[in-house]
Design brief:
Shape of chain A: globular
Number of strands of chain B: 0
Number of helices of chain A: 10
Strand content of chain B: under 5%
Order of helices and strands of chain B: HHHHHHHHH
Distance between the termini of chain B: 62 Å
Oligomer: heterodimer
Largest interface: A-B, 52 and 73 residues
Number of helices of chain B: 9
Number of strands of chain A: 22
Largest sheet of chain A: 8 strands, antiparallel
Amino acid sequence: MNEKFSPHPLDDVIRRSYDVPEIRSEFVSALSVDLMQSANKQVAKNTNRNFTLRLGLGFATIALLLGIFFTQAPAGRALANSISRFFQISSVTEIPLDDPSQAEIPTYAPTFSVTLAPAAIVGATKAHVPTPDGFTLANSRACEVEPFGYTCQIAWAEKKVGYDLKELPKDPTEYRFDKVFVQGNNDVQINYERIAGGSYLYFFQGPGSEFTSAGVGVPEDAIQSVMVGENPGEFVAGGYAAAPGQTTFKWVPDSRYSLRWADNGRWFEITTYGCVGREDLCSAEGLIEVGLSLVNQPVQTEFTRPDHLTDITEAEQISGLTLMEPAILPEGFVFTFATYDARLKEIRLNYHPTGYDPGVAQISLWQSLLQNPNKTKNGNAGETVDINGQPGQYSSPDSFNHTVVWQSGDLEISMLVTSSDLWYGGTFTKEQVLEIARSVK
Amino acid sequence: MAESSIPLTQHHPLRIEPDEAYLIAAARQDLRNFDALYKHFVTSVFRYLYSRTANVLDAEDITAQTFLIALETFDRFRGDGHFRAWLFGIARNKVVDLYRKRKPELPLDDATNTSTSQDPLLSAIHLEQKAAVASIIAALTDEEQELLRLRYLAEMSYREIANLLQRNEDAVKKTTYRLLARIQSQLEDPNE
């Protein structure tokens, strides 16, 4: 227990009342050895993990390329030569590319020093999806209300494929709907992305029980038989990926998680990448739970979603706070969304660089009312700094990650600055971070 | 990754009594430093799990699972969360898994009354008081019992408990104080 608190006379007797025996030292030692071995294995494969597992970025592109590779290239077709119940089986764990220049191998972002600039007055922009081809807004009331919204796009897809789509009952926690695709064979793909970036959930379905868009094969031993309710299914953790500069795709036994099954004349697939903050979506159990939750008619989404507030006014209304904003930001950064935690009565404003997945770099500004304005800050380790005449605490393990905590009036403010060294590359100096903090007014 | 300012390498052993933030930063920098984090938390995790399972082997088994999962998913631990809350969240889930697989063999009454004490010098007064407290705790709601376990066995701060249970910190604090007052009062007057 980190906090200081007055001992209660019952503290000791309550602890003893559980009669917990001493932990065996042999057990502690044996588990320590197991953990060290496991840690060594993970460190050894970090080269591969670094580019795919940290945010899951780039992997979707590779999967798409591989799909093309397996279906178009002769070598690819030869590899995908046998089919399990739901997944095609590949007998290889490494796929050489005859012509790497033809594949969009991801490249790491070069490191650079960010430049500060006056914050642009730009509200959050909703991801606008082009109006579906051949779809007239008059076809659906939902499209009159929100032409780029979920309901409109689902209505469009259902009209196009001619069957009632199974849907997630609502956007998964931390995720938001992105877009809908209709593929050949009347297959439908519904994409969700993590609001704060770095993770994706793709939900596929199509008529029949054959996976017409099966595409990429997987090693046989990666397939895990599961039950989705009363229906047999298969779960695979892993996928082929290539690190920048490599000329082969290698099987990486995680980073991509897929569940496939068929039910009542329709096949389904749920695939996730990343799973930041939603570890359950990187497991068979978690995906099965999603699969079992499918409905024909989803819950109507709330007009105001506390975990995805798209402008400052909305954030102020829901929090009841007069919010403070930075007047200076790194060039290219704009306000993207805010989240409100009703339990903690805390608002978080998020700023990201435009044109990037939000997970690659962010400035987050937490604001909440001081529960006791007279309390002293103790528990935020770091260097004491001056923020507009108030003492603050600054800490940073490296030039990509910085934290500043301070008080202003009756608000407690925490600012987190993070940047992916691989996917964004921007470094911040302490002085720049403090300049941003001091501009928060 | 840019070179870190945290002076941690294989040649810089961890401090003898490191703080949690330092241990977490060390493990982030090099997963092989996770061992120090494990040793810092293993006793409280085991104590908590024993209180949930009333069985040493089960508690050890779930302790091992908890730390192996924590190690494997450490890169997904969000730095803005509380590590202890995150770790005990894993432990709690594993207990639920255990109970899903098999019904608890011991009700909590038995668990809290399972005496493994071999200290013959423990005073009769203490024994009586301990039994009385165990009995009062056993009569609490599941939620209240869990609050006490997290506070006294998992050694979590109110903020960490609030984070884990997704409740307001003040509410957790007040509930705990009220619970202690109730236990105290029942100890003084068992008929209350």
